[in-house]
Structure formats: structure tokens, C-alpha cells
Amino acid sequence: PTYAKEIQTAQYAHGLQDIICKNEFKLTGILNGIDVESYDPSTDPEIPATFSKFDLSGKAKCKEELQKELGLEVDPGKMVIGMVGRLVSHKGLDLVRVVCDKIMEGNVQIAILGSGESAFESFFRDMQARYPGKISFVCGFIPALAKRIYAGSDVFLMPSKSEPCGLAQMIALRYGTIPIVRETGGLKDSIKDVGGIKGNGFTFQTYNAEDMLD
Description:
Layout: H1 2-6, H2 10-13, H3 17-22, H4 57-69, E1 79-84, H5 93-103, E2 108-114, H6 118-130, E3 135-139, H7 143-152, E4 155-158, H8 168-174, E5 178-182, H9 185-190, E6 202-204, H10 209-213
Parallel strand pairs: 1-2, 1-4, 2-3, 4-5, 5-6
Helix pairs in contact: 4-7
């Protein structure tokens, strides 16, 4: 629904805003969902340990095994930030690039899986070399590893510039991993900040690296 409103503006419509606005009466935005059986941490055979909202003990095991698999320092006290998706500019990766060094000043690790624009692939390779044991970058898309990142991370970073709906934030929630998202498109529709009613994640509004960092 939010994306249906956004594409009526010049910022999001790529020059089509006039014709979209003219036909607004037949424009509807539909929030998609996910297959909750395929993405079920209580039965998923592709994660190291199963868990549920009633018993989260298996999630700690998933985090430990993810740290081992990706060459991160095995430390339950470090917050693991997961990122899974296409490495393209509209996913907000330029914000990450601006403040990545500041993020690493915290007691955190970053696990990234994805491929896309060469500039972002090179950036994350450089960051992995600069922060051994703290940043892991796997170039490509490996569905089983994606599930292990969803299950083993503490938070999931998705700072998109635009996002018609998005699946990753919903999958992260399914695996008990808290999304950090920008309030755009389907991210705004599906993730509510913990500071409000029925909060289920952390959100920021402006497309600004410092706001994301906060």
C-alpha cells in the first residue's frame, strides 16, 4: 500500500507519476506474504538447531554455528547483523558504505550474502579483509546459507531506498531476527518501530546514513 502511494510521486515513479496519478482510482497496493511452512524455524532441516517463539534456545546454537561457518569470532555477546539480498544501489547499500567503519566500532559482526553491482561486491570484500573475524562476505546466492543467516543473526539490516514490498524482513521475523529498515514501501507496511504500538523492529525515515546508524 505505501509503495502504491510512493509511485504517484516523481521521486519513485521514474517519470510515470502523471499517468499513474491519472489512473490512481484503479491502483491498489497488496502486501505479499511468505510461505510460513518452508520458513519455519521449528522444523527447518537446513539450520543447525530448531527453535520456536516458545523455546529460543536453538537460536543461540544457530548463531554459534553461523559464526563458526563464516569465520567470525565465536562470541555470543557480539550482535550479529545479517544482510541477504541483491547488492544494488536501491537496496540502500550506499548508506552502509558511508558508515560501515562506524558500525564496526560497536560490539558487532556483519554477515553478508549476495551479489550484484561490482562496486558493492568489491566494497564488502575490502571490508572483510579490513575486519577479519568481524565481517564475512559471501558473494552469490546460496538458499541454505541464507536461511542460516536469517536464523543465526540477531538483527537484519535492510535500509532500502525503495522497496515495493520485500520478503527478507518477513523471513527475518519468522526466524526471530529483528529487522532494521527504512520506512519505505512494504517495509513501512510490515515493520513497525518498537517505540510505538505493536512494534516488531527498528525503523528510520530519512534516507540518511547517520539516521540508519542511530
